[in-house]
Structures are given as structure tokens and as C-alpha cells.
Amino acid sequence: MFGRRETYSTSCYDYSMKQAATSKAPGAPAFLSQALTSNGFIFVAGQVHALPDNTLVGGTTAAKVAQIMSNVEAVLRAAGVGMENVVKVVIYVTDMSIMPDLNEVYPTYFAQPYPVREAVCVKELPLGASIEISVIAEKP
Question: Where do the H-state alpha helices sit in 2-131?
């Protein structure tokens, strides 16, 4: 409690940052990273429903989410982990009315216990996309 000082070993932490990248997902401009690994976590930049050549995939919400999750998984694999290591998901949409459709397909990409999740409505997304998803994963 009060007055008691505890010390913690930092030997299990890796404070260096390592970049992860793949050509199997849309590339990031030179001043951005697809993902960074730091302190046992992988921080994946927001992925939109685009092919690796940055061509947007249209169609249903399910088709868009499938492309996004394919991009996310490719970046995670480049960092040495998979979807099973995801602990947090942030979803950005330009129209909240698509959330029921998104919620229908979203659980198919994860197993229980599901990652924590946030959904945020924004005015615009890169490339004119309607959905963007970023994740944080744990590196075992």
C-alpha cells in the first residue's frame, strides 16, 4: 500500500521498435508504417477495403470487411503473428447504418474471447473508403 515501494524488472520488455511490412496489403507512403512491433505488441495501421495496388473493393459490407481482414492478416503475418493474437480492434465507418451488416460478419474473423472493440463514425476515410480497421496484437 502507501509507503511501500515496489520495483519491477524491465528485462522482459523489448523497448525497440521494429517495422513490419508486406506487399500482400496496400503499402504505406514512405513516411508511414504498415505495422510496428514494440514491447511485445504489434500495432497495425488502419487498413481500408483496398487491394495491394490501392484499388478499392466495392460491393457489400461483407466483401469490404473480407478485403480489410485479408490486409490486416497479411500485415500481422509479416510481423510473425496471426488474427488469433489480436487483442484490440478499432473500426472506422463513414455511415453507422452499416454496423448491423458489419456486426454480422465481424465475429467470423475471431475466436472467443473476442478482442475488445471500438466503432467510430467519421466524415471521410483514405482513398474514399467507407470502412477502415486497425488492430493491436500481442506477440507471444
Answer: 61-78, 99-105
Instruction: Tell how strand 116-121 and strand 86-93 pair up.
Output: parallel
**Residues 17-45 as b or e (16 or more Cβ within 10 Å = b):** eeebebeebbeeeeeebbbebeeebbbbb
Domains of the chain: 17-138 (3.30.1330.40)
How far is Cα 24 from Cα 90, in angstroms, rounded to an integer? 21
Q: Which residues contact residue 85 at a Cβ distance below 8 angstroms, ignoring those fewer than 6 apart?
A: 42, 76, 137, 138, 139, 140
Provide the edge-to-edge strand list for the sheet that holds 116-121: 17-20, 35-38, 41-48, 131-138, 86-93, 116-121
- The 10s digit of each residue's pLDDT in 47-87 is 999 999 999 999 999 999 999 999 999 999 999 999 999 99
H or E, element range at 19: strand 17-20
The span from the CA of 116 to the CA of 135, in Å, is 10
Residue type at position 53: D
Helices (H) and strands (E) in the chain, counts: 2, 6
